[in-house]
Amino acid sequence: MICISVTPESRNLAKVDLLNASRYADMIELCLDRLIKAPDVGELTHGLDKPVIVSCRTPEDGGKFGGSEEERIALLRQAIISGPDYVELDLETATKIPRFGETKRVISLTSLDQPIGDVNGMFDAAWKAKADVVKFTWATPHFEDAWPLLKAVVDKRELPVVGMGIGKSGITFSLLGRKYGSPWLYAALEKGMEAFDGQASAFDLTELYDFKSITAKTRFIGLVGYDRTQPLMARVLNRGFERTGSSFRCLPFQVGQLDKIRKRLETLKVPGMFVNPTIHLDLHQFTDHEEDAVRESKACDLLFRKKEQWQGFNLLWRVMLKTIEGSLDEQGKTLGKQNVLVFGTNPLARSLIYGLNRRDCVVSVTSPDDIAAKQVAQVMKVRQIPFMNLYDTYTDVAVIADESLRAGHGKSELNPAFFRAEMTIADFSQLPLETEFTREASARGAQVIPPEELGFVYLSAMFKAVTGETLNREDFDEAVNKLVV
């Protein structure tokens, strides 16, 4: 079940927010700590057809209540008299407010900066405080922090346990919690109305991550290292999984210590993960086998477990060759003998250089960091173009792999005047999103391979590698049109 947190500041708008939440939620949490004036909880919740939890948290527990402790307790007492289904209380407050009527008590145990260490001891304390439900809330910046929270929730205990992860891996916990039977999970009504920073919205859970379709039989495939493009990737891939009847769904998470992730994934029966090729991973801690492209470029975008072994694959270089060669073919050209310049020194850049080295073209690399570019040139056996000499270099095809590169006139910026009408441009830095370079190159008449086309071909390769099925273009276009602004 989804419990949508409603965090109103105005009593006049609170009723509207509650009604909106009731359309999507299985339960509603009414957070009183942001209201400027004390509400009549009974009047606000009258007519709602979903169970209601009332909470009023202090800043120490992640809330916004600015009054005195006496005022907060008085507000909670008045709320309980109105007869909500649940009231959330911290341990100390629970000792000051006795059980009243049929309202059940959610005893909340919160740690804003780290996981709770003594989970069993804290559970016992909540039980003694006459809890009906125990709630654990703690910081989950990485997957490793979400793991013990999941364990705290799914372990069999005398009372129901719910959880809430704070931070980038909060949604990781929510999706896993759904699979493993958490009584309910929390979501914000919409962006900007989060009860805690980083809380997923109801739209995120239902539209991007297909929350309601997740069951005990769901198999997750990880999304690692994607930030800006993660919502789009999740929506496209999940729609594809649903359309083809696959049991896979996307599980985004943040990697902290890679050596611990492998065991966790095997325990959860997660057979693989897509990895952003721009990030650096020490794959020796993880893989049993890597294909040649991964070993040479140190870039891996798919980790998959086959026959009890974790194998590393690189899909991107094949996608790059397919799209660039297709574009050149439409222009009556071939990649052979073309002067190709790659911008970047990260694993993504090395991956693209690896692919280009498979063809009879002249490959060079450049970057504002000349020392790093020289090192990549030596390892990948290509030319290095000093960044200051960039504008004197003849280039047929420019391939951008550096997501930190900016347009401008500074020494470390790329002057858009570099782009000329006879060039072919492929920007892989933020697939499938348009960038300032694709816009500038198009304005100057260059042949720009559309980023959405690159993105679709790349996501198609990912999808096929896992399912063996073909990705539907309509799913991709719908996600791009809805999510990209």
Number of H/I helices: 17
How far the N terminus sits from the C terminus, by CA atoms, comes to 30 Å
CATH superfamily of the largest domain: Aldolase class I
Low-confidence stretches: none
Assign a percent range to the helix content.
25-40%
Average pLDDT, all residues: 91
What value does the Rg take, in angstroms? 26 Å
Q: Report the count of strand segments.
A: 20
The figure for the number of domains is 3
Strand content: 15-25%
Spatial sequence of strands, sheet with the most strands: 7-6-5-4-3-2-1-8
CATH architecture label name of the largest domain: Alpha-Beta Barrel
Main sheet specs: 8 strands, parallel
Please state the structural category: alpha/beta
CATH topology of the largest domain: TIM Barrel
Shape estimate: elongated
Question: Could you give a quick summary of the protein structure above?
Answer:
The protein has 485 residues and is an alpha/beta fold.
Topology overview:
Layout: E1 2-6, H1 11-24, E2 27-31, H2 41-45, E3 52-55, H3 69-81, E4 86-90, H4 91-94, E5 104-111, H5 119-128, E6 133-139, H6 143-154, E7 161-166, H7 170-179, E8 185-188, H8 202-208, E9 219-224, H9 230-243, E10 248-253, H10 258-267, E11 272-275, E12 289-290, H11 292-297, E13 302-306, E14 309-313, H12 316-330, E15 339-343, H13 347-356, E16 362-366, H14 370-380, E17 383-384, E18 397-400, E19 424-427, H15 436-443, E20 447-448, H16 451-467, H17 473-483
Parallel strand pairs: 1-2, 1-8, 2-3, 3-4, 4-5, 5-6, 6-7, 9-10, 9-11, 12-14, 15-16, 15-18, 16-17, 18-19, 19-20
Antiparallel strand pairs: 11-13, 13-14
